[in-house]
UniProtKB/TrEMBL annotation:
UniProt organism field: Butyrivibrio hungatei DSM 14810
Pathway note: Glycan metabolism; L-arabinan degradation
GO BP annotations listed: carbohydrate metabolic process
Signal peptide: none
InterPro entries with a match to the protein in the record: GH43_arabinanases, Glyco_hydro_43, Glyco_hydro_beta-prop_sf
Descriptive protein name: Glycosyl hydrolases family 43
Keywords: Glycosidase, Hydrolase
Pfam family, any one: Glyco_hydro_43
Domain of life, source organism: Bacteria
Family stated for the protein in its record: Belongs to the glycosyl hydrolase 43 family.
GO MF terms, alphabetically ordered: hydrolase activity, hydrolyzing O-glycosyl compounds
Length: 301
């Protein structure tokens, strides 16, 4: 793959008019962001619940295609969180593109198991052993939030959904990053309202072991963890959505994921742009991809 140059952030902005749609932001350093398309949604869902939250973007292994998946949910419509958890959509929304600018979709795919109350915050990682994409998400079943998964080769057909991981507590918002040593997984404990960190040699749940993280243990009222590696150095950035304070994302950095230690950045060290950044996904991009997306920035002036 060509040298990586910048970063694309896909996200939603909140429970207001058009807030639960998909917004794009662009960055050269991963810490200072510019909103694309004049700060308006780039993609809108007009199907299902007519909202798209928690978007996540992935580049195809062959680098010829991109997919965005999202939660089919619009809280602004007034249904409330109890109904959203226990009587919500069992679908994920899928968009597809060959150039990051022109998108087809959305289309809805039912991945929630029968009786599931919701399908929240779907994410994707490529499983090298299975040679398939693993889609994982939270669902309320038997009055508890757990993480489920399904596999797909090309986002057209999907394996039967199965339980991926559960805890004594409710858990939602899992994200996974692949590294040389294995996989790091970050998940929101919905009971304690904290993020837990785990490491596994492979993607099977039995492989993951808890990492003791003082940084994350001291942080409450956060969700939507996302993690990426900086393009120009051996350092990682974990961001968490400070939903309880209504402040949007907060970045923290580390050069040793196994340590569980992060340096939380001061407000002066990052700029997330005009729009509030709520739960979303960050993808590293090449110069060509950056330049193509930058045209959406020009349109916003």
């Amino acid at each position: 793959m060509k040298d990586l140059y910048g970063y694309l952030f896909v996200h939603f902005t909140g429970e207001h008019k058009d807030g639960e749609q998909i917004y794009f932001s662009l960055s050269e350093d991963g810490l200072h962001w510019k909103d694309l398309n004049g700060g308006k949604p780039v993609l809108k869902s007009t199907i299902g619940e007519k909202g798209a939250r928690d978007p996540f973007i992935i580049r195809a292994v062959n680098e010829k295609k991109y997919w965005i998946i999202a939660t089919d949910l619009r809280i602004e419509a007034g249904k409330g969180w109890d109904v959203a958890q226990h009587g919500g959509s069992r679908d994920i929304l899928i968009w597809e593109s060959k150039d990051l600018v022109n998108w087809e979709g959305p289309r809805a795919v039912t991945v929630g198991v029968p009786g599931a109350g919701c399908v929240w915050a779907p994410e994707v990682i490529y499983d090298k052993e299975k040679e398939m994409y693993m889609i994982f998400f939270a669902s309320m079943t038997d009055n508890k939030q757990k993480i489920y998964r399904t596999f797909t080769k090309a986002f057209s057909s999907f394996t039967d959904t199965e339980l991926y991981t559960e805890s004594d507590n409710h858990i939602i918002d899992s994200t996974i990053i692949s590294t040389k040593e294995g996989y790091y997984r970050y998940t929101k404990d919905e009971t304690t309202k904290k993020i837990k960190a785990e490491f596994g040699k492979d993607l099977e749940n039995s492989s993951f072991k808890l990492i003791d993280s003082k940084t994350l243990g001291e942080m409450e009222g956060v969700e939507g963890p996302e993690i990426f590696k900086f393009n120009d150095r051996d350092e990682y950035c974990l961001i968490v959505d400070r939903y309880a304070e209504g402040k949007g994302y907060l970045p923290m950095v580390t050069n040793d994921l196994s340590s569980g230690k992060f340096r939380v950045l001061d407000e002066s060290e990052f700029d997330l742009g005009e729009n509030k950044k709520r739960h979303g996904g960050i993808m590293t991009i090449t110069k060509d991809e950056y330049d193509a997306l930058k045209k959406l920035l020009v349109q916003s002036n």
